[in-house]
Amino acid sequence: MTTFRQLHAGPDVLILANCWDGATARMIASLGAKAMATTSAAVAWAHGYPDGDALPLELYVQTVRAIRRVIDVPLSVDAEGGYSDDPAVVASTIGALVEAGALGINIEDGGSPPELLAAKITRIKRAHPDLFVNARTDVYLRDLVPAPDRVRETLERAARYADAGADGIFVPGPIDPETIGALTSGISLPVNLLARPGLPGAKQLAELGVRRLSAGSGLAQWSWGHVGALARAFLSDGRSDPLADGAVAYGTINPLFSAR
């Protein structure tokens, strides 16, 4: 079987349509996904919590187990910032996710100094050397430095995270080919981008050197928009017909799952 690490070796881009529970994981896997990844935002929302290190770890572990139960492809888990600024605590937290079935993780620097994420990565890899650690830097997503300095800052952080033991670099934000090419040329590890309006398709991204593309919370946000519109209309007029428009039959969904 192709390993999660090998899926980052190209020549094609590894496309991850991020899930947030067992149902979405099973559906996406049934469509031929080569690997699965969670979106921390949608997992948190599904449990009634905001995104941003607020979801209790035990709920996330339960979610990972539920996802792992219904898929047979590699699973990567979005661990946000590791839910702590203490690298030892972060390593323990990641251990719980690994035990639940994660073969890879995302972990981000957010607004914290890059040396903190580097320290977390070092502790994680010491405890779990085979885990695929995708280090996310939010230089673009959070506008951490002025625009002319973002490529340089991202490359410096990527090098620091690679030295700490990271296996991949996630740079959400850039969409233009010139910037993407500069990043992939200057980063020694597989580069992961986030789906955003205006981003080239997978074929062009592969030509630019990108190795991984994540939907992030995009599918969940789309679901919120469309379910919300249907629910609003149903609450307003009680009409049944719109609920069937584009719906998947019960008899198609239910057989995807096993009682065991």
Q: Would you write up a description of this structure?
A:
The chain is α/β, with parallel strands linked by helices and about 260 residues long. It has one domain (about 5-215): Phosphoenolpyruvate-binding domains (TIM Barrel). Helices cover about 45% and strands about 10% of the residues. The chain is built from 11 helices and 8 strands. It has an 8-stranded parallel β-sheet. The protein is globular. About 40% of the residues are buried.
Please supply descriptive tags for the structure shown above.
260 residues, alpha/beta, TIM Barrel, 11 helices
CATH architecture name: Alpha-Beta Barrel
- How many separate structural domains? 1
CATH superfamily: Phosphoenolpyruvate-binding domains
Low-confidence stretches: none
Oligomer: single chain
CATH hierarchy class name: Alpha Beta
Short description:
The protein has 260 residues and is an alpha/beta fold.
Describe the secondary structure blueprint for this structure.
Elements: E1 14-16, H1 22-30, E2 36-37, H2 40-46, H3 57-70, E3 75-78, H4 87-100, E4 104-108, H5 114-127, E5 132-136, H6 150-164, E6 168-170, H7 177-186, E7 191-194, H8 202-207, E8 212-214, H9 218-237, H10 241-244, H11 250-253
Parallel strand pairs: 1-8, 2-3, 3-4, 4-5, 5-6, 6-7, 7-8
Helix pairs in contact: 1-3, 3-4, 4-5, 5-6
